[in-house]
Specification:
With 256 residues, this protein is α/β, with parallel strands linked by helices. The chain has nine helices and six strands; from the N terminus they run H-H-H-H-H-H-E-E-E-E-H-H-E-E-H. The protein has two domains: 106 residues, no CATH class; 119 residues, Nucleic acid-binding proteins (OB fold (Dihydrolipoamide Acetyltransferase, E2P)), CATH 2.40.50.140. The N and C termini lie far apart (47 Å).
């Protein structure tokens, strides 16, 4: 990354929504022979890649390194050009790298594109966009909970990454809320679950109030109130995220 020694993690094609295994394997095989010089070069050398796959790769930022000054929307612009069928005589014409007239994606648009195309994001966590507003409401981060006293009343908020209602738990529901610092564990008693059933089952982002329990450094919040984040004056961004982010966790909904 820009010549700096920055730790990084490569995300495989398996995470790209709609990416076929045959096309991914062909890209990997071909780039090992010779570096890909651009988007048109990619489409010529790997004709197995479909336009829809190129569009998704562009939207999640996977193609922005194939040239100087390329951002996600300029990559989309080049994909539209490269995906059109051409004549053999045109193959000798150098690839056009002029800048597209499309503006760059905003942080919010990049986040939505990431979750839509890969179900994850390498950018800021969604919760970071409303942290300032949440902090004004005394909402704690997951990393703050270890510093609170057992029995202290507190608030936490995050993206729901797990909902569990074990058959042996006598109707108790267990939630995992993820924010930009970690995961908060929530305990919901049967009566409270019935009161907030629709919110708990349907909302992607929740704010929970309750008493902190810290038993031998095992931390959880015993909920007394559950509500959607976007009702707590965190702005319209989280509202749109809650409607558009796609999660592939098959265990995310509690059995009725």
């Amino acid at each position: 990354m820009d010549g700096k020694d920055v730790p990084s993690l490569r995300i495989g094609f398996r995470y790209v929504r709609g990416m076929r295994q045959a096309a991914a394997e062909r890209i990997v095989s071909d780039r090992q022979k010779c570096p890909v010089e651009g988007i048109e070069d990619l489409t010529r050398r790997v004709p197995e890649v479909q336009k829809a796959e190129l569009v998704t790769l562009s939207e999640i930022g996977a193609l922005k390194f194939l040239g100087n000054g390329i951002h996600r929307r300029s990559a989309l612009w080049q994909v539209e050009r490269a995906a059109r069928p051409g004549w053999p005589l045109l193959d000798t014409i150098p690839e056009q790298l002029e800048l597209s007239p499309l503006r760059q994606m905003t942080d919010e648009e990049r986040l939505v594109a990431d979750f839509h195309g890969a179900s994850l994001s390498t950018g800021p966590h969604p919760m970071s966009y409303c942290r300032e507003a949440l902090s004004k409401q005394q909402v704690k981060r997951a990393s703050d909970l270890a510093g609170l006293l057992d029995g202290q009343y507190t608030r936490v908020a995050g993206c729901v990454i797990a909902r569990q209602r074990p058959g042996t738990a006598k109707g108790f529901v267990f939630l995992s809320l993820e924010d930009e610092t970690g995961i908060s564990n929530i305990i919901v008693n049967p009566d409270l679950y019935e009161k907030y059933r629709k919110v708990i089952n349907r909302e992607k982002f929740l704010l929970v109030e309750g008493v902190l329990q810290n038993q031998d450094n095992v931390i959880a919040i015993k909920a007394s109130r559950v509500m959607p984040i976007f009702n707590q004056r965190c702005g319209n961004r989280v509202t749109r995220f809650s409607l558009r982010l796609a999660f592939r966790n098959s265990q995310s909904r509690v059995a009725a």
